[in-house]
């Protein structure tokens, strides 16, 4: 006897992504294609809220939502940690020595881009003047400003920065606590149909497709289910 189906079962699952960069057509296509390969047919919308959203990539928990469903992982497979990076030769031993120094941050809503690192400075009584802040478009550019001696320190994510430390003679001067709020949340449009997309997302990796991951910050390497799901 045929199994009854509903029209909703044939509709794409709506995913929204709070992207920090301008999303190219190539990145959009590659991300959609990677999900489809894993059995998730998705309608992906960038930079906009939607009441239809089943899953939402957010940098912080929505007011009406609870725990994150899929948390982000850095290149080491761990929760991201904000960091201040300096040149080893500068001799900076702590962020308290960054008073009146030029600093590189990253534009956007990503809490690791500026909010958390600047809060670490404020905790030491340091409030950089606007003219001391160089806002880069991404984390690579921020490190580039540091490496070319345009700034005295740069924000980064510990796992992302780790690959450059030794051969670029850089050090982590400040390391923040793991950030667990960034990731995928279930929206009001969630239904069991979205479980296929949750499963697909849990198998995606930047190593497998860098172009698909261009819709996320450079430090995002994958997603993992939390203990709450």
Descriptive overview:
The chain has 229 residues and is of the alpha/beta class. It folds into two domains: 7-76 and 180-225, D-Maltodextrin-Binding Protein, domain 2 (3-Layer(aba) Sandwich); 82-175, D-Maltodextrin-Binding Protein, domain 2 (3-Layer(aba) Sandwich), CATH 3.40.190. 21% of the residues lie in helices and 22% in strands. The protein is built from six helices and eleven strands. It has a six-stranded mixed β-sheet. Helix 2 (115-123) links the parallel strand 6 (103-106) and strand 7 (133-136). The chain is elongated, with a radius of gyration of 19 Å. It starts with 12 loop residues before the first strand and ends with a strand. Residues 1-7 have low confidence and may be disordered.
What order do the helices and strands come in, and which of them pair?
Blueprint (H helix, E strand, L loop, with lengths): L12 E5 L7 H13 L4 E5 L8 E4 L11 E4 L8 E6 L15 E4 L8 H9 L9 E4 L2 H9 L5 E5 H5 L2 H4 L1 E6 L7 E4 L8 H9 L18 E4 L4
Parallel strand pairs: 1-2, 1-3, 6-7, 6-8
Antiparallel strand pairs: 3-10, 4-10, 4-11, 5-8, 5-9
Give the percentage of residues in beta strands: 15-25%
Cα end-to-end separation: 34 Å
Helix content: 10-25%
Identify the overall geometry: elongated
Low-confidence blocks of residues: 1-7
Strand order of the largest sheet: 2-1-3-10-4-11
> Can you give the mean pLDDT?
92
What's the main sheet like? 6 strands, mixed
How many individual domains? 2
The total of beta strands comes to 11
Radius of gyration, in angstroms, nearest whole number: 19 Å
């Amino acid at each position: 006897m045929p199994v009854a189906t509903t029209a909703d079962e044939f509709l794409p699952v709506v995913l929204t992504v709070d992207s920090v960069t301008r999303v190219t057509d190539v990145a959009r296509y590659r991300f959609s294609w990677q999900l489809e390969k894993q059995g998730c047919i998705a309608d992906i919308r960038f930079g906009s809220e939607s009441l239809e959203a089943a899953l939402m990539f957010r940098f912080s928990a929505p007011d009406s939502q609870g725990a994150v469903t899929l948390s982000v992982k850095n290149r080491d497979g761990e929760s991201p940690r904000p960091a201040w990076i300096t040149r080893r030769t500068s001799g900076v031993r702590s962020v308290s020595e960054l008073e009146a120094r030029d600093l590189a941050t990253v534009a956007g809503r990503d809490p690791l881009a500026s909010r958390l690192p600047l809060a670490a400075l404020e905790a030491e009584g340091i409030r950089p003047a606007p003219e001391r802040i160089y806002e880069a478009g991404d984390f690579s550019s921020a490190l580039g400003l540091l490496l070319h001696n345009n700034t005295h320190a740069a924000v980064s994510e510990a796992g992302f920065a780790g690959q450059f430390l030794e051969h670029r003679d850089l050090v982590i001067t400040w390391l923040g606590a793991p950030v667990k709020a960034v990731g995928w949340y279930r929206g009001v449009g969630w239904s069991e149909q979205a479980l296929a997309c949750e499963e697909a997302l849990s198998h995606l990796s930047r190593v497998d497709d860098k172009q698909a991951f261009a819709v996320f910050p450079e430090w995002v390497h994958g997603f993992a289910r939390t203990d709450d799901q």
